[in-house]
Write a structure and sequence with these properties.
single chain, 718 residues, alpha/beta, Serine Threonine Protein Phosphatase 5, Tetratricopeptide repeat, Rossmann fold, 4 domains, 27 helices, globular
């Protein structure tokens, strides 16, 4: 009978197959798998109610059958009930998170899985050892738009490649998907393939994008496990709205480690775009709160970070420098395969400056020196000046100066998107390199130049002496006259460059990336073993509850351009009022994905006692409600404190939220009715544009208002 049913199924005879499965189930009614088969046939035959009953019978027989929930989700999708569909897929994922099908269906629905879902899924996984997940999110984001990497992405690729080649099962590669806001683990070969593609000449951006696409297609969703460590090794500020995802990881017992390159946007904001200053400082404050371990790329960056935080009373996790390498691992390179622009320079004397063209890097310093050289020496005795890097922020005037001097009458060459292979040729062929930056966290081009045996001039400021030691000629980046004298010495004093090359060859011992990887592996072994200085208790989710003062007024709208660092710190703190169910739009306004959320924060110690009520003002924005209408319900202390019908637009709502026994102010929000969905099928209806906090009062004083919404009115136009 079962064989005949399967044959009818394979032949597409849905009704016949359903009846044959029904006959089988009369004999063996406990066969949960056959109830699923019958449900599938009924679904295909269009008998949706009967199919739903069959799936429910299978679930009743075996409540942990992930396949039954998966098939039930498929049925609800056919029926157009996306809310029920999402619930079914979510349960299928919880029961069997190692099957990608349910998660991919949730992705297609635009679902954002919260910490509770992952916590439930983790309970169904087999135990394994603690792991370190190297977060390569910004590499994936960056290489989708660029064919070459900047310094930070270069560091991550070299570091992760060296760790992979060293072997072992402690480290895994991962990335954070911006759409589903979930972590994925990817094959180790991804980094090896990316590194190889970036070393080829010419670089094929299509190949790079293809490697990333394959990695994403084969990625496995990461279910957080207590004891694991997520290592954010790159530009953490490139994903500014991810703080609550990391916060959710910590609630699951995952520890966070971060690699901080520098804090220049905070200490030297004049060198950075305002939006970078705002985004970087906000994200830095996030990670200062989140991190269990902080690594820096230099002693200077470690000292700078600790000094800045100490001056402001900001507590820090243990900080440990792990210095970068001097090596540019460019693979095979030859002049015959060089790009035309590079090949044209290799048979001429030139001086090399490798860096993004921006104010902080001080390109104008060399430009002025070369102008003086051309005034004081015959043109044919002045070498070419080669800038390798993309134009960055606020260089329109500088680029205009270059153009007005006809690029030093052809002596100045600006090369962008240079491959590693071409860059190695330039390093080898240069008379010397220069790096007169005002401030750095490390200074990769200094070490790379020395690794190729090429003399270097660098600034004496910040971290740069750590890179070159006493094998580099140092200059004051503000003193052009001193720099001119040194350049003239190198160019026109017989034997000056040869002597420096000889000393580099005899004394320089380059640190290579495998050595950096070995040190990082050692540091993480200490982290996983919880040995000093990483033997403090892990931070928990309760440690990360936001701290807001009575009277605080946080306006999220357009806070991405907030210029005041102290205010940005307050904004960063307020971001933790929200959990991972919220996503940010381009104005940093918080949108709820789903129909329920809890807002939570603390007042300063001693400011409120348990049972007190704190007035909370929320500026709420609503999209168009569902066809049957929606209602917003406010809850606190286990009780409903108010409700309202949702209408399109913006309102200001003020209600009382109770302080619980742990001193946390909690306000629950829930939306009743069928949720509308956006163009990504995400259930999104409500946003919080701002939050205000009043002074705590005794609950008795609010009896008159019964803790209900005190004020609901249209928001006045500014």
């Amino acid at each position: 009978m079962l064989r005949e049913a399967d044959e009818a199924r394979d032949a597409g005879k849905w009704t016949e197959a359903a009846e044959l499965y029904a006959a089988f189930l009369e004999l063996k009614p406990e066969a949960d798998g056959i109830w699923i088969q019958r449900g599938n046939m009924l679904k295909e035959a269009g008998r949706h109610d009967d199919a739903l009953a069959a799936f429910d019978r299978a679930i009743a027989l075996k409540p942990d059958n992930a396949d039954a929930f998966l098939m039930k989700g498929h049925l609800f999708k056919v029926m157009g009930n996306l809310d029920a569909c999402e619930v079914a897929y979510r349960q299928a994922f919880v029961l069997n998170s190692e099957d990608r099908t349910a998660f991919r269906e949730l992705r297609a629905l635009g679902a954002s899985l919260d910490a509770d879902t992952f916590a439930a899924a983790a309970g169904n996984l087999a135990a394994r050892g603690e792991q370190v997940l190297m977060d390569l999110s910004d590499i994936f984001k960056f290489l989708k738009d660029h064919a070459t990497v900047s310094g930070i992405q270069r560091v991550q690729l070299h570091l992760s490649e060296s760790i992979i080649r060293a072997g072992g099962d402690t480290f895994r590669l991962s990335y954070l998907d911006e759409v589903t806001r979930a972590y994925y683990t990817i094959a180790a070969e991804t980094v090896l393939d990316l590194s190889a593609a970036l070393r080829r000449q010419p670089v094929d951006h299509g190949e790079i994008r293809s490697i990333i696409a394959r990695a994403e297609q084969g990625a496995e969703v990461y279910v957080p496990r207590a004891g694991d460590v997520v290592f954010v090794a790159g530009a953490f500020w490139m994903l500014p709205d991810s703080a609550n995802v990391y916060q959710a990881l910590k609630r699951a017992g995952v520890r966070i480690a971060v690699y901080i390159y520098d804090i220049i946007p905070i200490t030297h904001p004049e060198f950075c775009a305002p939006e970078l200053v705002a985004r970087f400082s906000r994200c830095l404050f996030h990670f200062i709160r989140l991190a269990d371990v902080i690594f820096t790329i230099s002693e200077f960056s470690a000292v700078d970070l600790k000094r800045y935080c100490a001056e402001r009373g900001i507590p820090l996790a243990p900080v440990r420098p792990v210095k970068l390498a001097h090596q540019l691992d460019s693979g095979e390179s030859s002049a015959g395969r060089a790009s035309p622009a590079v090949k044209s320079l290799l048979d001429r004397p030139f001086v090399l400056f490798v860096s993004t063209i921006e104010a902080r890097k001080n390109h104008n310093y060399l430009f002025q020196i070369w102008q003086k050289l051309l005034e004081r020496h015959p043109r044919d005795q002045v070498p070419e000046l080669v800038f390798v890097g993309r134009p960055g922020w606020r260089v329109k005037d500088l680029m205009g100066s270059f153009a007005s001097r006809n690029h030093l009458d052809g002596k100045l060459h600006i090369l962008s998107n240079v491959s590693d292979a071409d860059l190695s040729l330039l390093y080898r062929a240069a008379q010397f390199s220069a790096f007169p930056s005002f401030v750095e966290g490390w200074g990769l081009p200094i070490g790379e130049s020395l690794a190729f045996g090429t003399p270097c001039i660098a600034s004496t400021t910040s971290s740069m002496p750590e890179v070159g030691g006493d094998l580099v000629d140092y200059v004051d980046p503000y003193n052009v006259t001193g720099g001119l004298e040194l350049v003239e010495e190198l160019l026109f004093t017989p034997g000056a460059l040869d002597a420096r090359r000889a000393r580099i060859a005899n004394e320089f011992r380059p640190v290579i990336w495998p050595q950096v990887a070995d040190e990082m592996r050692t540091r993480f072994a200490e982290v996983l073993a919880r040995t000093a200085p990483y033997d403090a208790p892990d931070k928990t989710g309760s440690d990360l509850v936001a701290r807001l003062a009575a009277g605080a007024q946080i306006d999220f709208e357009e806070s991405a351009l907030e210029p005041r660092i102290d205010r940005m710190r307050e904004l960063a703190e307020a971001d933790f009022v929200f959990d991972d169910k919220w996503i940010w739009d381009e104005l940093q306004v918080k949108w709820l994905t789903g129909s329920q959320a809890d807002l939570a924060f603390r007042l300063p110690d001693g400011a409120a006692a348990a049972g007190n009520v704190v007035p909370v003002a929320l500026e709420l924005q609503f999209r168009k409600p569902g066809a049957e209408g929606n209602r917003l319900v406010f809850r606190s202390g286990g009780a409903e404190v108010g409700r309202m019908d949702i209408k399109t637009g913006t309102i200001l709502a003020v209600c009382g939220a109770e302080v619980d026994a742990q001193g946390v102010v909690r306000l629950g929000l829930s939306i009743e009715g069928v949720m509308p969905r956006d163009d990504r099928l995400r259930p999104i209806l409500m946003a919080v544009r701002s939050i205000g906090v009043g002074s705590p009062v005794a609950a008795q004083s609010l009896v008159v208002m019964e803790q209900r919404i005190r004020l609901v009115r249209p928001k006045l136009e500014r």
